[in-house]
Amino acid sequence: MLPFTYALRNLFRDPARLLQTVGGSAVVVLLLIAAVAMNQGMDSVLSSSGSPRNVILMGKGSEESLERSEVSIDAESAAATSISGIETKLGVAAISGEITYQAPIRTSSGKEEPALLRGVLEKALLVHTSVRLLEGTFPGPGEVMVGDLTHRKLGVEKEELAVGQQLYFGDSAMRISGRFTAPGTVLESEIWFDRNDLSSLTQRDSLSSIILRLENTNADDVELFTFQRNDLELAAIREDKYYEKLSIFYQPIQIMTWVTAALVGAGAVFGGLNTLYAAFASRIKEMATLQSIGYTRTALFVSLIQESVLATLSGTLLAFVIAYFLLDGRTVPFSIGTFTLTMTPSVIFTGLIAGILLGTIGTLPPAIRCLLPSLPKALRSN
User: Fold this and answer.
1) pLDDT tens digits, residue range 296-332?
2) Is residue 315 within 8 Å of residue 33, measured between CB atoms?
3) Global pTM?
4) Which residues are registered as beta bridge partners of 173?
5) pLDDT digit string (tens) for 185-224?
6) SS3 readout for the chain
7) Where in the chain are the domains?
8) What is the dihedral of CA 195, 196, 198, 199, to 10 degrees?
9) Which among 97, 78, 5 is positioned nearest to 303, based on CA atoms?
């Protein structure tokens, strides 16, 4: 076998080619890391947003969208008195009738962006157990409470959504009364209104949903209630199942992320192949000379693979550094919230495997072509 230092020295024989190989592999790995991190981030926030102990009562026929659902206000009290197994805290049943509405919100700086609005009463904290008030108070009349990541959803500085600032829904000014966190869920990007205020502002006399928190995950009593009260036209779905359905809805976006990464990556791979073909073609005589002094084609092939893997792993390392500073911890807004890009072990492992495969599989065609000519023919080549 050729010494490892031979492959290492050959890396620097052509600095331009080295930079092209390292840069191309860095682009491919970086795109793959971004695609995996985005898909994992979206899946993670949707899977964490629902609780298996929460059941959502929605309007029949609107099970795929809370925004389109309409539920009678009377259904909240009917459900509270008819369904057994609802969790209680200090004698208060964990049931929350809510209005969910998507609309443009304007900040004090004049920027207007769509946001998910939720009209709630204080009982909402009994069902949304991940919510924690960071500062301020629960919203009263004329007030709103913002999630800790709402500024990312609206694309403004965090200071614009500080307690005491104003948000505008149409012509109505709403004072920010508090700020809350709900780590890893879509709730953290929402704006919570007093339910009566949002009902008045949206001119609706119905709820979007009723959320119940059960003492266990058995939702049979809730299902039975919807069958018994056909007059209310309700459908029941566990909260975790609802968000699982939403993740299926967003699959086309995830597929497009993979397709975009694959197309750009393919361009970089083909460019790298052309570079390697040109580089290895000029070394056919060198490989033949090494064969003539006793080195086998297998040893030469392994050396070429080593050389290529060193270059692609250098590009992979560069991609990790760029991803750490530009992607890790960055929040990305989407229609119902935001998700965070995280350099998880699986993301890092995927990038590392991609770098190794680029250096091995991507090198096979030019390396084989370089070593394929017979020894006399290769020695006569220019």
Assistant:
1) 777 777 777 888 888 888 989 999 999 999 988 888 8
2) no
3) 0.81
4) 168
5) 999 999 999 999 999 999 988 999 999 999 987 888 888 8
6) CCCHHHHHHHHCCCHHHHHHHHHHHHHHHHHHHHHHHHHHHHHHHHHHHCCCCEEEEEECCCCCCCCCCCECCHHHHHHHHHCCCECEECCEECEEEEEEEEEEEEECCCCEEEEEEEEECCCHHHHCCCCEEEEECCCCCCEEEEECCHHHHHCCCHHHHCCCCEEEECCEEEEEEEEEECCCCHHHHCEEEEHHHHHHHCCCCCECEEEEEECCCCCHHHHHHHHHCHHHCEEEEEHHHHHHHHHHHCHHHHHHHHHHHHHHHHHHHHHHHHHHHHHHHCCHHHHHHHHHCCCCHHHHHHHHHHHHHHHHHHHHHHHHHHHHHHCCCCEEEECCEEEECCCCHHHHHHHHHHHHHHHHHHHHHHHHHHHCCCHHHHHHCC
7) 4-48+250-380, 53-216
8) 110
9) 5
User: Which residue has 């069958």 as its token pair?
Assistant: 227
Q: How many residues does the chain have?
A: 382
Can you read off the two tokens belonging to residue 300?
A: 């030469």
